[in-house]
C-alpha cells in the first residue's frame, strides 16, 4: 500500500535509507572510507617546493585537470598523488587485450572464476604502471624545478610510496564495492572531483575576474551539465521477442514474450576522453625534454610544445582543438565497437530463442545491430567531442581563465551520481520502498 504524504520524493527516500539498518550501515561505511581517502590525500611526500608546485598546476591546464581528479593530491604531492588512475589504465589495457589474446579470452569465458583471474592480473599490472607513473611524475616536477636534486634512495622511497598509495586507494574502492554503496573506484574519483570544486570556485572569485564573465561561465557549465545528463540517459530500444517451448507431462506448451535491448548513445562513457587526453599530452611531454632552455633560440621541439599546449593562442589553439575533436570521435568508434563485439548480442539472442521482429536471426541480425550501433555511435561521438572542447569555448566566450570546469570531470561526476542513485533506488525497491527516480 502506497503511503500518502507531502514530503518530496528525494527527501522521503533519504529518510527511508536511514531507517533501514543495513542500508544505513552501508552508507555510513562508504562515507567513513571516503573520510580515510581524504585524509590520505593530505599526507605529503618530501622534497617539494609547495609554492612552485602550486604555480605549476595553475599554469598547466592538463596538470590542473589531473589534480582535479585526484582531489588536490597532486597539488600537495601526497602519497595519493597518482589516485586510482594506474588501476584504470590497467583495466583499459586488459579490456583491449582480452579479445585479442586467446588465452585471456578463454579465461574470461570461465564465468565468475575467470573474472576473478582477470581482476588478479589487472591488480598485478597496476603495480608496475603505478611505479612508472610515479617516476614520470617525479621527473616532470624535477624538470619544472618544483623538486630539487634527490638521492637515488630517496627517489626509490618516493616511487614506492606513490605506488603503495595507489594500491591502498584501489583496496578502499573494492571495500566500498563489496560492503558499501556503488562502484568503489568510481566513488573515489567522484569524491576527489567534488572535494576540489569548492577550492577551484574560491580561486575564481578571489582572482577578481569579470563578474559578467563568471556568471556566463557558470551558465555555460550548467548547460553542459544538462547536456551530459541528457546524453548519458539517452538510448534506443530495440524490440525483442522470445518464443520458447516447454514440455509439461506429455504435452508441449509454447510461450512467448517481448522485451527490448537498450542501446545507449554514449556506450563508451568517458574512456575515449581519457585516451584522447593522453594522446594529446604525450607529444608535448616528449618535446619538453628536447626544447631549448629559457631565453634560448626556439627549435622544432618548442614548436611541438606550442601546438600541443591547450592554453595556446590562435591559430595554434585551433590546431590543438581540431586534433582533440578528431581523436575523441575516433576513440569513441574504436572503443564502442570493441565493447559491442564483446557483448556478442546476435549469438546471445539466438541461443536464448529471441529475435528482432522483421529481422532474420543470425547474420541479418548482426548486420542490423551493427548498422544501428554505428548510427548511434556517430551521435555519441559528436556529443563527447563537443563535451571535450566545451571548456575551451567557455574560456574564449567569458575570458575566465582561473575557473576551468573540465567536461571530463563533469561527465564522470554525473555518471557516478546517476549510477549510485539507481543502485539506492534498487535497494529501496527490493524493500518495497518508493525510490527517487522515475
Number of domains: 2
**End-to-end Cα distance:** 18 Å
Element order: H for helix, E for strand? HHHHHHHHHHHEEHHHHEHH
- What kind of sheet is the major sheet? 3 strands, antiparallel
What's the alpha carbon Rg, rounded to whole Å?
25 Å
Task: Identify the CATH class of the largest domain.
Answer: Mainly Alpha
Beta-strand share of residues: 5-15%
Q: Which structural class do the helices and strands define?
A: mainly alpha
Instruction: Work out the helix count.
Output: 17
CATH architecture of the largest domain: Orthogonal Bundle
Shape: globular
Q: Strands across the major sheet, in which order?
A: 2-1-3
Question: On the 0-100 scale, what is the average pLDDT?
Answer: 76
Amino acid at each position: 500500500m502506497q503511503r500518502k504524504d507531502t514530503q518530496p520524493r528525494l527527501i522521503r527516500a533519504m529518510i527511508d535509507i536511514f531507517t533501514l539498518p543495513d542500508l544505513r550501515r552501508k552508507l555510513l561505511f562508504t562515507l567513513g572510507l571516503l573520510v580515510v581517502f581524504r585524509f590520505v590525500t593530505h599526507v605529503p611526500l618530501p622534497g617539494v617546493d609547495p609554492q612552485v608546485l602550486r604555480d605549476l598546476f595553475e599554469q598547466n591546464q592538463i596538470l590542473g585537470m589531473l589534480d582535479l581528479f585526484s582531489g588536490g593530491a597532486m597539488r600537495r604531492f601526497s602519497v595519493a598523488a597518482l589516485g586510482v588512475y594506474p588501476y584504470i589504465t590497467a583495466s583499459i589495457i586488459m579490456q583491449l587485450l582480452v579479445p585479442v589474446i586467446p588465452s585471456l579470452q578463454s579465461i574470461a569465458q570461465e564465468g565468475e572464476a575467470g573474472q576473478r583471474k582477470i581482476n588478479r592480473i589487472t591488480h598485478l599490472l597496476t603495480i608496475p604502471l603505478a611505479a612508472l607513473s610515479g617516476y614520470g611524475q617525479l621527473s616532470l616536477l624535477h624538470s619544472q624545478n618544483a623538486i630539487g636534486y634527490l638521492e637515488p634512495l630517496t627517489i626509490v622511497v618516493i616511487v614506492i610510496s606513490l605506488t603503495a598509495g595507489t594500491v591502498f586507494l584501489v583496496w578502499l574502492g573494492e571495500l566500498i564495492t563489496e560492503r558499501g554503496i556503488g562502484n568503489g573506484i568510481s566513488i573515489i574519483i567522484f569524491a576527489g572531483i567534488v572535494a576540489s570544486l569548492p577550492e577551484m570556485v574560491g580561486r575564481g572569485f578571489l582572482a577578481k575576474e569579470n563578474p559578467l564573465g563568471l556568471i556566463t561561465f557558470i551558465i555555460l557549465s550548467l548547460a553542459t551539465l544538462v547536456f551530459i545528463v541528457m546524453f548519458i540517459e539517452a538510448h534506443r530500444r530495440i524490440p525483442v521477442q522470445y518464443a520458447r517451448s516447454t514440455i509439461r507431462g506429455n504435452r508441449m506448451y509454447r510461450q512467448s514474450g517481448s522485451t527490448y535491448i537498450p542501446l545507449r548513445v554514449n556506450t563508451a562513457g568517458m574512456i575515449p576522453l581519457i585516451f584522447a587526453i593522453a594522446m594529446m599530452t604525450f607529444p608535448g611531454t616528449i618535446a619538453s625534454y628536447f626544447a631549448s632552455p629559457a631565453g634560448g633560440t626556439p627549435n622544432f621541439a618548442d614548436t611541438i610544445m606550442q601546438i600541443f599546449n591547450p592554453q595556446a593562442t590562435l591559430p595554434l589553439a585551433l590546431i590543438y582543438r581540431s586534433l582533440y575533436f578528431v581523436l575523441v570521435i575516433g576513440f569513441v568508434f574504436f572503443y564502442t565497437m570493441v565493447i559491442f563485439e564483446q557483448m556478442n548480442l546476435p549469438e546471445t539472442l539466438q541461443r536464448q530463442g529471441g529475435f528482432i521482429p522483421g529481422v532474420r536471426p543470425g547474420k541479418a541480425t548482426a548486420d542490423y545491430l551493427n548498422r544501428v550501433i554505428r548510427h548511434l555511435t556517430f551521435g555519441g561521438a559528436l556529443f563527447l567531442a563537443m563535451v571535450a572542447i566545451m571548456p575551451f569555448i567557455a574560456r574564449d566566450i567569458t575570458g575566465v581563465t582561473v575557473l576551468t570546469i573540465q567536461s571530463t570531470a563533469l561527465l564522470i561526476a554525473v555518471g557516478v551520481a546517476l549510477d549510485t542513485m539507481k543502485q539506492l533506488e534498487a535497494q529501496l525497491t527490493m524493500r518495497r520502498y518508493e525510490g527517487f527516480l522515475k
